[in-house]
Fold each of these.
Amino acid sequence: MLPEEPLHEIQARADAAAASVTAAYARPLLRLPGTTLASVDNPRPRRVLPGPWHYWWQAHYVDALVDAALRGAPGAARQAHVLVRTIRLRNGLRATNWYFDDMAWLALAVHRLDTLVPVRPERNQDDDGGAAAAHGRQHPRMLAALGDALRSAHTLDFGGGLYWNRRRTFKNTPATAPAALHFARSGERERAQSLIDWLNTVLIDPGTGLYLDGVKAADGSSGETAVERAVYTYNQGPVLGALLELGGPANLSRAAELVGAISNELSHAGTAVLITHGTGDAGLFTGILCRYLALAALSPTLPEDRREQAAELVTATAQALWAGRTKRGQRTVFSPHPLEPADRHYPAGTGVGLSTQLSAWMILEAAARVRRGLS
């Protein structure tokens, strides 16, 4: 195991990442007071209208703010509520969109926010009422709309699972896994278990124990299906979360196996540092996985060796990111590849995309959760 670092130092690193993401990317929508969204690039191109709409990136921004609120970061809960309302505004006053995986990520984030109970009261509560905001279920209509949409995508075609988008030609892990976790957390456990059972039947790679990307109709009219065999870090995360949430011997055995498979297959050789997948959408992937590895590290239902393995994956990845950081004025910038310095990928004067920085923040929050839980 890696040597333990002081809790206050781990939390300070998460604070630095949160402050850097907020300073670099958080902006009002169309300069409207009482709104906030994260831009996808820094520096932002000059434009009148909002930039590209990355709905699911904003969902993970909400999740990161919830992580920060859980460890008592001032104002994080209030900022998350404002962000959720602005997402709906930017999305044309709708909660739903074309992609069911996007909607599943937002449902998870909003549910966490609306059931948020901080570990300790927010610091400096009086300046913004953050603690009061944290305890109110403020988005029931959004959650209802998202839940209805996700249920509509869960059909018996291809044997079960969730469609990826409204075209309904492809069912995949990125939609099915977070939807299963959302249903497990919101009380639809039978539906959640059926989704996990489908993943276990259709999309486990027996050679690695990891989950493959998805399944679609094969060419022609034979009714056969073809499996998309790509393996991504983020697909493993919400499956792990759903297995832990549902519990029971079979699910917990599979969760323990999955932690081992992640360690064996998705870390850099000779280290416990997780692989990453680059920038753009893929820049978020490993941050998502670390959120759920942190849950595994703290789960009393898993064997001790698997908990330690999950903790080490999170901690080693966070330490590597921190060691390779660089500074842009008062901001901290993180590398998209934890074992390579940030300066190599983001030389002075170059733009930095949100996804990699948000992922780094998520990983540092996961490390803080692990350290706090183990202390």
Amino acid sequence: MPQTFREARWYRSMLYVPGHKLDWMLKAPRYGADALMFDLEDSVEIGQKAGARKAVAAAIKELSAGRFGRFVRANGWRTGYLLDDLNAVVIAGLDGVAVAKTEDPEQIAALDLVLGDFERSRGLPIGRIEICPYPESAVGRYNSYRLCMASQRVKRAGGAGGPTPGGDMARSLGLQLNDLTDEGILFGADPVVQVRAAGIIHVEGAMTAKLDDLDLVRRIGERSKRMGASWASAIHPSHIPIINEVYSPSQNEINEAREIVSVLAEATARGEGAVRHKSMMLDYALVRTAMEVLKRAQEVGIDVGNIPKVELPLI
């Protein structure tokens, strides 16, 4: 039986914005990120959380007409802050909730129920708000597959490229890495297997906490993309144009994908299921990959030209 993947809007980039800075949140769309993450967790100290919730709700309302995604990183379970966070921000215009320091699938299942009740009581579309699990410990990383399977609201998850050096995950794993050390590849490959096995195709790549090294942003993005990532987050606006470029199909990729689809379309019209092309044997698997490239390009507004139709078998 073919695997079912969870469809969701395609984002290349997500910009984190501190939730207690309303002016920053209102200005954030100008930087070109496909989605915004209003942060109520680490960037907001305890004494500012109540005011930050009001500011985030105001930002969601003010920016509700934007084509970008609107997400909130809430405080984790057992902090005593999560339900207050949700009560404030689950309103029309919210696209998703990221849960900090997620470890157990029960936390995702519980959040699913809470979001469902808020949606029903507030007249919002049932099941529309996404859940983004953010494991930040060895236990959470080990449970990545189970976290994704705990709710159909989970449509994007992370891990490709490895943990951020010095962050919670690296500390939990006892890793001493720099941003591009080869040892990090292992810790970036395993979560990709887990989240893809759960049907998640929107896989987050690695990010850097270094604000001024734009070349590093590109190199991390390119490596993460090779390892299966389809998007990445940033904490500084200057990173967004680079991330958007890295995670957009290049013109060469688009041309090659369109050519592959065209060649096999002609072959299937002749009754052939595989055909030689540029010293390579084209088959349905390669056409599926090419069609994914073209679909991603279309979703970010790139004109891919005319694409011939190819009837693909179910498996």
Amino acid sequence: MSPNDHATRLLTAVYEGDEDAVVRLLRSGASPESVDADGQTALYLAAVSDQPGIVRLLLATGAAPDRLSQGTDAPLCGAVCGGHTAVVRALLAAGAGPDIVEEFGFTALTWALRRGHTQVTEALLAAGADPDRPGPTGEPPLVAAARRGSPGCVRALLAYGAGAKPEALAEARRWLALDVEAELRASLARAHGAGHPSSTRRYPADDGADGTDGADGADGAGGITVEVLLLDAEGRPFAGDDQQTGHAEIAGLLEAALGTAR
């Protein structure tokens, strides 16, 4: 079997989540660093697909944990975006840099806070991620967590000594005066144009007590999560965004941290 055939079969097995096939192909000579025609690595595909067993197999046989897929996307950041805690822990244990920077200056912690993934945030901080490293716009992590409305992420950052507490408190208080649904809808309209039909869903923010992130991608106690989807002419979602609503709890946490009266 040629190297190209090996790579194609390995990527297919990863895509299908077939661990047994991955083992067989690696034993028969497939490279754990295999890439598809677009340059996507097998490790990145396994990471974003939430395949911790396959991720561990690829790492154990030589896949570089920090190799950028297509030259731009880090496996750790891909796993973080999806809230795939087990994959994140496997990559960190194999030596993935917790502060690795992707294209446009995004780090894993930036993505974790934007998505409100508390357990992922805790894992990154425990592995040495800088709690004060600004995101690509220069925003302190604690401010980003306050905007997201995730008390769990705020607690994790405070536990690791994150700064910018006054700024984060101001951000949490600002959101207390806003309509989250209206803000999400306005943001989507700016990005995709006004006039699209939409749908809104509200669900409890899951604290991930079972050891996994919430099924809807936002964990950490924080009231409810509001999700707004834009729909095409056939009523199918084509864009969307969501946000937690734990700003009141966050304000209390930050007031306590600063020793200020409510």
